[in-house]
Design goal:
three-stranded parallel beta sheet, 9 strands, 11 helices, six-stranded parallel beta sheet, alpha/beta, single chain
Length: 285
């Protein structure tokens, strides 16, 4: 059995816009049940969602016990207005609004807080991001406010400097983490913070024709090399496929991620340690 520590039940692995449109007026229970069924049939018994703006993951958590799945969700992710994150949550303009969103998430039953502190990969140009990350002060305040509210923090984060600042600020898990360099990998291992490198959303693009294969392959190779380096430092590396992302279907995407991680030499014991950490830390106090 596998645990999926980074999923988005609102997405379907095929067409994000069409998937979200199903929930325009109300959450489409049929779609949620379909994805839960796909996960169960793939042997998945634990899912940590990355949130959405339509309360899809909230319903998924309610229904998950019927499928023998333990489910955790932030309800929605939080991002600074004008920066990446609108596809999975709500924005804030200042820290008063951020505190209000943290309070709202807690009141709506969130198990933890999900924050967005960087852009995502530019799949057409290896080694680059769609935008730079937030400042160290912004990241520290976001994490600090959530911790003060008694909530663990899951952070969407890419780019060496932004990842370093996020780890230094005391984040509880690092998601994606592309382009980390030696000093940041050292800090990752030193702090024992679980890292979910989400290899599948990159590797599964190979051959699809949407992006240049040579650029996709270079991004994948860079991330796999960093996972190998992190593993050699005995870092806590976990299984989170970003299930629901393009070409990362629920169930199958988790198995794809497992296969990528095994290619880097990450052991089952390491994956189990990361999952156990998530189950312990990413839950309501």
């Amino acid at each position: 059995m596998l645990g999926e520590c980074h999923a988005h039940m609102i997405m379907d692995g095929v067409n994000y816009k069409a998937a979200v449109a199903l929930h325009r007026d109300h959450v489409c229970e049929e779609a949620v049940r379909r994805h839960l069924k796909e996960s169960r049939e793939a042997g998945i018994r634990f899912v940590r969602d990355g949130g959405d703006a339509r309360e899809v993951s909230k319903l998924a958590r309610e229904l998950a016990p019927e499928y023998g799945i333990e489910y955790r969700t932030p309800i929605f992710a939080i991002h600074k207005r004008g920066h990446y994150g609108g596809i999975v949550g709500h924005p804030f303009d200042d820290f008063r609004e951020y505190e209000t969103l943290v309070k709202r998430a807690r009141e709506e039953g969130a198990d933890f807080i999900k924050i967005m502190v960087s852009g995502l990969l530019d799949f057409s140009r290896a080694g680059t991001l769609t935008e730079e990350g937030l400042s160290g002060e912004e990241i520290r305040r976001m994490i600090g406010i959530a911790h003060d509210a008694g909530m663990a923090v899951m952070a969407h984060c890419n780019g060496d400097r932004t990842c370093y600042l996020t780890l230094e600020a005391g984040v509880d898990s690092l998601e994606h983490g592309f382009f980390m360099e030696e000093e940041t990998l050292d800090l990752l291992a030193e702090r024992g913070i679980p890292w979910f490198p989400t290899l599948s959303p990159v590797g599964n693009l190979l051959g699809c024709g949407r992006f240049p294969d040579e650029e996709v392959d270079e991004n994948l190779d860079m991330q796999m090399e960093r996972v190998k380096k992190a593993a050699s430092r005995k870092a806590c590396i976990g299984l989170g496929s970003d299930a629901g992302a393009y070409l990362v279907p629920h169930g199958k995407g988790t198995h794809d991620e497992y296969a990528y991680l095994k290619r880097t030499g990450v052991t089952d014991a390491t994956l189990q340690k990361a999952e156990a950490y998530v189950k312990k830390v990413f839950r309501r106090n």
